[in-house]
Write a structure and sequence with these properties.
This protein is of the alpha/beta class. The protein has twelve helices and eleven strands. It has two domains: 227 residues, Spore Coat Polysaccharide Biosynthesis Protein SpsA, Chain A, CATH 3.90.550.60; 120 residues, no CATH class. It is globular. The chain starts with a strand and ends with a helix.
């Protein structure tokens, strides 16, 4: 019998929900995985636009157990973000007895074979804890959204292959370090060891942290090319995003790196802090950058960091030096590339990375 899969589908009512949610659910209705082995767990954060729940329950719950899998709806009383809502979904998945949970974005649609292909990979690779499907851009389906994600040694994460035309079998130019939270299968037995997401992250970088912890515990993280999901992704340059990404980038580094590594990267990290601060000032986001720094100055933050580092130490099997080949020394993304980044910043960062790998 095929493993039991809980699909965790977060909902948040926006102007696009009226199109995105039915589009995604129609694609799930067409999937060819045994529906009796699947449960869709909706987890909704409140929105100023009201709830999506009444419409979903009216239009889709009557199909549960026939053309659709079983369904459950959880409405959060407060907005706990992407990270917190998925933790709520995890509890429901465990209660149902799932073997795996598949995290799926609201604005995605799936290929009919997406689930059994990634589950087949998981069953053949029992040491793999986190697996990402191939993400294609929904608005331009021949182009990649992500064929796995790369992580810079200073904690900057970015999609591999973004906006490139997909070529079957073509490898990514940089190593895959982490799986994008928009479409991942997570082995629940591994979650018992490493946990899922840290709820206080709210949004952004929680997927980096999950894959990093999985690797430190000795698990593998994989990109499964023949499992396909279409994602309506657009690069967002928002103030809210900038704060959470910078805040959570620092927290992830401070929790998962060994102290020796943090000391080694400190000189280049300070240089990049100056660079990101100047960028924030130029973009009108200086206040958000200050907020991310102020968060790090709180005694409660450092108590949290110590607690998280102790948790990671309890299951760590892999040293930082062993993970260096999976990190990268350059930052590449078509939406942020410019001559200064390409000709000055990246060569400087990459040169220091080469030195770091030799010393570690």
């Amino acid at each position: 019998m095929m493993p039991k899969i809980a699909i965790i589908y977060l909902t948040y009512n926006t102007a696009a929900s009226a199109h995105d949610i039915p589009d995604c659910l129609r694609s799930l209705e067409a999937m060819d995985y045994p529906k009796e082995q699947v449960k869709i767990i909706f987890v909704e954060n409140p929105s100023l636009n009201g709830r999506s729940r009444p419409t979903i329950e009216a239009d889709w719950f009557p199909k549960a157990g026939t053309t659709m899998p079983a369904m459950e709806y959880i409405s959060n009383e407060k907005d706990v973000g992407y990270a917190g809502a998925n933790v709520v979904g995890l509890a429901a998945a465990k209660a149902w007895g799932a073997d795996y949970m598949y995290l799926l974005n609201q604005d995605a649609a799936v290929d009919p074979a997406f689930l059994w292909r990634v589950v087949q990979y998981a069953e053949l690779n029992p040491n793999t804890a986190v697996m990402q499907s191939r993400l294609m851009l929904k608005q331009t389906p021949e182009q990649l959204n992500s064929q796995g994600n790369a992580l810079h040694y200073l904690g900057f994460g970015f999609c591999l292959g973004y906006r490139e035309t997909y070529i079957p079998g073509a490898p990514a130019r940089l190593p895959v370090f982490y799986a994008s939270g928009a479409s991942i299968l997570v082995r629940l037995s591994a979650v018992e060891t490493i946990g899922l997401f840290e709820p206080s992250y709210y949004m952004y970088h929680e997927d980096v942290d999950l894959s990093w912890r999985a690797r430190l515990a000795g698990f593998d993280v994989a990109y499964v090319e023949d499992s396909v999901v279409f994602h309506h992704y657009e690069f967002s340059k928002s103030i809210k995003k900038f704060y959470w990404m910078e805040r959570n980038r620092h927290l992830t580094n401070l929790v998962n790196y060994e102290w020796r590594t943090l000391l080694m990267i400190a000189p280049m990290a300070l240089v990049m802090e100056l660079g990101t601060f100047l960028f924030a000032l130029k973009s009108g986001w200086g206040k958000e950058k200050f907020r991310s720094w102020f968060h790090l100055l709180k005694p409660s933050t450092w108590a949290w960091i110590r607690s998280r580092r102790a948790a990671v130490a309890s299951f760590r099997k892999v040293r930082d030096a062993d993970l260096m080949p999976l990190l990268c020394g350059v930052i590449t993304n078509q939406d942020i590339e410019n001559p200064i980044l390409s000709n000055i910043i990246n060569p400087m960062l990459n040169g220091y990375f080469g030195l770091l790998k030799r010393i570690l």
